[in-house]
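Bench log. Compound arrived from synthesis this morning; before running ITC I wanted a structural hypothesis for how adenosine-5'-triphosphate sits in the protein. Inputs:
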Amino acid sequence: PNQYVVIGLGRFGLSLAKELVHLGQEVLAIDQSEERVREAEEAGVYAVQANARSKMALREAGVQNVENVIIAIGEDLESSILATMICKELEIPRIYAKADNPVHADVLRHIGVERVIFPEEEVGKRLAHSLVTGVLMDYIDMAPDASIMELTVPDRFVGKSLGVLQLRRKYGISVLVIKRGDSLIVSPHGDHSFQAGDILIVLGARSEIERLQRR
Amino acid sequence: PNQYVVIGLGRFGLSLAKELVHLGQEVLAIDQSEERVREAEEAGVYAVQANARSKMALREAGVQNVENVIIAIGEDLESSILATMICKELEIPRIYAKADNPVHADVLRHIGVERVIFPEEEVGKRLAHSLVTGVLMDYIDMAPDASIMELTVPDRFVGKSLGVLQLRRKYGISVLVIKRGDSLIVSPHGDHSFQAGDILIVLGARSEIERLQRR
Ligand SMILES: Nc1ncnc2c1ncn2[C@@H]1O[C@H](COP(=O)(O)OP(=O)(O)OP(=O)(O)O)[C@@H](O)[C@H]1O
Ligand SMILES: Nc1ncnc2c1ncn2[C@@H]1O[C@H](COP(=O)(O)OP(=O)(O)OP(=O)(O)O)[C@@H](O)[C@H]1O
């Protein structure tokens, strides 16, 4: 079964689908427009033509037993809402949907989406930050496999301090934030010890982060 | 003189303007629609009604001697392009413009913008990453004034190692990346010493980062 279904291949949906494929994920893309389906296929995304207002059409297209569906239909509010409701009925664990305006967003939240996405607003805010700080947060993506990832503290680290564990020296990993219950410890220093249940947000090479989780 | 001018108060422009104001910046917003100007003013953004196709109207509105102009007109390609050309003629140092499609983007680049912005595509890519890593990079924004910022290495740090400087302990600051010429050192460990000309990308409380730069 596919991991991700993207419904709607506008600029947002198509770039989401392409990037997921680029990140090695299984993706099924759906659009009612034959032209957009073809465009997606030409970009290396497996796509199927279907009308997302029809439960039967979505089932036949393969939208069931998937972990994540992203509804990327913007202008056609009815289609966006109907498609979301159908996915809810199909018991998709995580549904994400793009919203065109706050009222649209409220309806989607009522139906029960994981997260509502507002591309224009989010990029507006992000641009404001990067203009002011002069820093694009995408620097983190510039080193070939450097990633920011979240992981549960490995058992063998509980009760040990960062200074003793030397994660930077051994794995080249920075612990950026420790999430402990409701509090956030940003840039924890060497004396901080990990506690059971801590969630860590780390920066480092993806392969090293995986190695840390395995050993 | 204002620091930022935002032309066009669609969702992208309005949220950019609001966030810049929130970040303490001087902002002038411009839109041809009286309704959108009023909406912006109600949101605390100083806004003026003007048609961005007219050099005289833009001059009268105060678009001159500004550092940055962001052209946030999406659908009306002619207006977007004309406004950009006018800003070039007014010798604005940095012009940013939102583009609706790759051809639009090419024209803007030809005129000479600092950066072309594609909100839908950028958010599509970013969502792909956060779905796959399970981490929203916005966690960094969750601690009240934690920021990622870029700074030139302070003179007094040159030749000293991270282990000796103890930035986390003294300032609660993590050095995430050292940019040295064309190379990137991600999550540098304690033995790394700073060199003249290094550019640091750091995570920490904004006030502490400023304190570090001052002393
Ligand atoms: N009922 C539907 N079933 C399947 N696809 C649909 C349906 N309604 C709309 N779509 C598709 O959704 C896609 C995105 O919709 P649209 O372009 O209106 O949104 P948008 O918000 O303007 O897109 P973007 O801003 O991401 O470019 C279109 O390709 C359209 O064909
Ligand atoms: N010549 C012009 N002078 C001033 N404002 C203009 C001009 N042309 C368009 N605008 C304004 O630009 C704003 C944004 O344009 P529009 O809504 O078409 O773009 P958009 O890309 O759909 O917006 P968004 O996606 O950010 O919501 C509108 O509020 C509109 O009034």
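What the model suggests: Strands of chain B lie at 4-7, 27-31, 47-49, 68-71, 94-98, 115-117, 146-152, 174-180, 183-186, 199-205. The mean pLDDT of chain B is 88.
ITC booked for Thursday regardless.
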